[in-house]
Amino acid sequence: xxxxxxxxxxxxxxxxxxxxxxxxxxxxxxxxxxxxxxxxxxxxxxxxxxxxxxxxxxxxxxxxxxxxxxxxxxxxxxxxxxxxxxxxxxxxxxxxxxxxxxxxxxxxx
Length: 109
Hints:
mainly alpha
C-alpha cells in the first residue's frame, strides 16, 4: 500500500504519514487504531517484538474488548487528547457520563 493510500484511509495527510514513518511525530493510540484499521491488522501487529528492560504495559487494561474499535472511538480519543486543560477534560468526561445516564445506559467506569 502506498503512503498516499494509507494517508487517505487513516484520514491524515501524506506528510503526516511520512513524519510517523521517520519518527518525527509520535503516533497516539487512537491514530494507531486508525492506521491498523486502514492496514486491516491489529495495533499489536504494528508494534512487532519490542525489546525493553521494562515490563510491558497494557494500555487497554480495563477497557472492554472491542471498545476501541467502536465507530467514532478513534476520532473521539484524538479530539479528547488534544484538550490541553485537565479541568476541561474532566468537564468533558462529566458531560459524557451525564449523557449516558440520561440515555438510561450504565455509566462508563
